[in-house]
Write a structure and sequence with these properties.
Helix content: 25-40%
Oligomer: single chain
Number of strands: 12
Number of helices: 12
Distance between the termini: 22 Å
Mean pLDDT: 90
Radius of gyration: 19 Å
């Protein structure tokens, strides 16, 4: 699955639900979103069938997302079935329900998870998520580590809100083999994005270097197709990284494609065009031609928003879905 820019796509992110037990401000509007009727969402069988097709076409890694993937009633069945496809299987979760799925993760061959947590301060956590699950998330992060899972913590940085916690998060890596992943605040439909709220990659490093004057901040070698720029404080067990989709996009090496919960293929997180695989599958027709067509139409950068002016134009990013409707 190669696009016209020579990028090969072997990483599929599947959103298995639009539902979530949090209401994070950067992910969805305060009034919520109009959810897709259940009849128009992929069933477990349809998810597995489409995933099998992608595996035959060269996908070697699948990540389950949402919404919150663990709120789906048949999430255990989906994970167990996808775990038999012979690919690297993982998921991104808010951590609230992790304790109910430890055995399922192991049975499905999942060894690594990303957990979203945007503050280490309870009141801030509650403010940004509009819910009160801080203790449970912290408890379940510990549970994952104690059960041998590789854990990455995702933090969306927002200036004036949690950017004063950058060092606090990195200090978690001193005695724990976790990776902290700072994510630049990105624009989506009605998440009230503006560039003034952005904490850039360079600003993050400036704060880090200013604090760790007696330590060496090492730049690590990134893996092929990495979205993150990886670093490590000398002698610390874990590491930290920055996903700089806004200021330093990684589009030239992108190998990712996304399947929404209603069975639509997006070739870029920022793309406002989608291809319905579910309708074609239900009509009994092959979906492979649609997949190839979708990937061939992929822009070189951020869904066609290839300069800063376009990227800051609300008329362009408001044509995309809200993040919860895309899949994290």
């Amino acid at each position: 699955m190669q696009d016209t820019h020579g990028r090969k796509h072997n990483y599929l992110r599947i959103s298995i639900t639009e539902h979530c037990n949090l209401r994070c401000t950067y992910c969805m509007p305060a009034e919520g979103v109009a959810l897709t009727p259940r009849a128009h969402l992929m069933s477990a069988d349809e998810i597995v069938t489409i995933a099998e097709t992608f595996v035959k076409l060269g996908v070697t890694k699948i990540r389950l997302t949402g919404g919150e993937p663990l709120v789906r009633k048949d999430a255990k069945d989906i994970m167990q079935r996808l775990g038999k496809l012979g690919v690297e299987l993982t998921l991104t979760t808010n951590g609230i329900l992790v304790h109910d799925f430890i055995d399922t993760f192991k049975e499905a061959g999942i060894t690594a998870l990303n957990v979203s947590i945007d503050s280490l301060e309870k009141e801030k956590f509650n403010q940004i998520t509009r819910r009160n699950y801080f203790e449970k998330v912290i408890e379940n992060i510990d549970l994952l580590e104690n059960n041998g899972f590789k854990v990455k913590l995702n933090i969306v940085l927002i200036k004036g809100f949690n950017d004063n916690e950058i060092v606090d998060f990195i200090e978690l890596t001193k005695e724990r083999n976790v990776q902290i992943r700072f994510i630049e605040f990105m624009p989506f439909d009605d998440n009230r994005w503006n560039k003034d709220k952005l904490v850039s990659y360079s600003e993050i490093l400036t704060k880090v270097n200013a604090f760790y004057t007696d330590k060496k901040v090492n730049r690590l070698q990134d893996s092929p197709n990495d979205t993150s720029k990886n670093h490590k404080i000398k002698d610390y067990q874990g590491s930290f990284a920055v996903i700089s989709s806004v200021t330093n996009p990684f589009c030239s090496t992108c190998n990712r494609i996304r399947l929404t919960a209603d069975g639509k293929l997006k070739n870029c997180l920022f793309s406002n065009t989608e291809t319905s695989l579910l309708d074609t599958l239900r009509a009994g027709e092959p979906i492979e031609p649609l997949i190839f067509q979708n990937i061939k139409s992929k822009f070189a950068m951020r869904g066609g928003m290839d300069d800063d002016t376009k990227f800051q134009n609300p008329e362009l990013f408001s044509q995309n879905r809200s993040m919860i409707m895309i899949g994290g």
